[in-house]
Amino acid sequence: MNKQIKILIVLLLVAIGVYVVFTRKPWKSFSGDGSDFTITDTAAVTKIFLADAFGLSVTLTKQANGAWLVNDKFEADTRKLNLLLQTMHDIRMRNPIGKNEHNTIIKELAGSGVKAEFYTTDDLIKTIYIGQATMDKSGTYMMHEGAETPYVMHLPGFVGYLTPRFPTNPVKWKTKLIFNIPAEQITKVNVMYPQTPTESFEIENAASPVLKNAQGIMVPTNTNFLKYYVASYTQMFGEAFDDEYSAKQHDSIFSTPVFCRLSVTDKQGKTYSLQLHTKGLSARTKERYDEQGNELTTDTEKYFGFVNGEKDMMYIQQYNFGKLLRTLTQFKEAK
User: Fold this and answer.
1) N or C: which end of the chain has fewer CB within 10 A?
2) Three state DSSP letters for 189-240
3) Distance of alpha carbon 257 from alpha carbon 266, whole angstroms
4) Among 149, 148, 118, which Cα is nearest to 38's?
């Protein structure tokens, strides 16, 4: 091949490249009109609105002290909020979608996608639609409002899809933190066992805490044991909020006999409470027999729980809360 032929081949390749770039415009799918989903300054976000096509929606608002509220009623799960904001900060486009799947993805976004709006103060800064996972489960279909093309988005270094980080059910955003009161801020702890009232007790917290029975009579016990018990009411989380039972079923369980009611009052006079109900066995129950080999009738690992009188039901683990479910007899034996 002589030099002239080589030059002609190079010129032909350049011409083809110029034609593709300026005529076919392959970069169009990668332009900023639909691919820039990132929020660089997530600290400036003060409100997030999420809604789906099935009628569920939730508004998350940032308070002056940095805390977030769910629908202006409940404290939000800070860890979930931070995860969502970190997702919006780190999210990147993996690839545009192919022409053949364009219409299908558009229909899926319209029929089952989640709409997410992000605000700073009262200014709407970004609206996106979140769809389902790609076939390989490592990307998520997303689209800007008003854009023509959806994209496959992902987090570099993360294997999985992102849709679960945008739940529209308000209860999914509620904090699972139940008790988080330093011992020095607690004035009183009350533990009631309505079905076995002789095991109920109250602790008046002071420099030297005092134990009383259900009738208000002082009961001698180990003071250090009382101090340790009162100090246990910090960083106590429920396992999860229930999303399987209906609201009517929650009401029904709430009305069943209470197994235990824990109440803590702080120095500001505010009382925090947890109401526990026994839970029947289920397919997930691991411990099904007692030490004598008899089949159990209730779950010894979990309880149904209701926080501060609210009807959103939680699952409470014995593993975590067992240290709080003490009885008067146990305090008497700790002398």
Assistant:
1) N
2) EEEECCCCHHHCEEEECCCCCEEEECCCCECCCCHHHHHHHHCCCCCEECCE
3) 27
4) 118
Q: What is the pLDDT of residues 233-249, one digit of tens each?
A: 999 999 999 988 999 99
Q: How far apart are CA 317 and CA 300, in angstroms?
A: 9
Tally the residues of the chain: 335
Structure confidence at residue 36 as a pLDDT band (50, 70, 90): confident
The owner of tokens 């089949």 is 295
Report phi then psi at 231, rounded to 5: -70, -10
Q: Which residues pair with 204 in a beta bridge?
A: 188, 210
The pLDDT tens digits of the residues spanning 287-321 come to 766 666 676 677 889 999 999 999 999 999 999 99
For residue 199, the model assigns a pLDDT of 97
Token pair of 214 as six digits: 């259900």
- Across the strands, what pairs with 188? 204, 265
Q: Are 136 and 152 in contact (CB under 8 A)?
A: no
- Which residues, including other chains, have CB under 8 Å from residue 239's CB and lie 6 or more apart? 176, 302, 314, 315, 316, 317, 320
Reported pTM: 0.79
Determine the Cα–Cα distance for residues 88 and 50; give it in Å rounded to an integer: 14
Of all residues in the chain, the percent with pLDDT exceeding 90 is 76
Residues with Cβ within 8 Å of residue 315, at least 6 apart in sequence: 238, 239, 240, 241, 242, 279, 302, 303, 304, 305
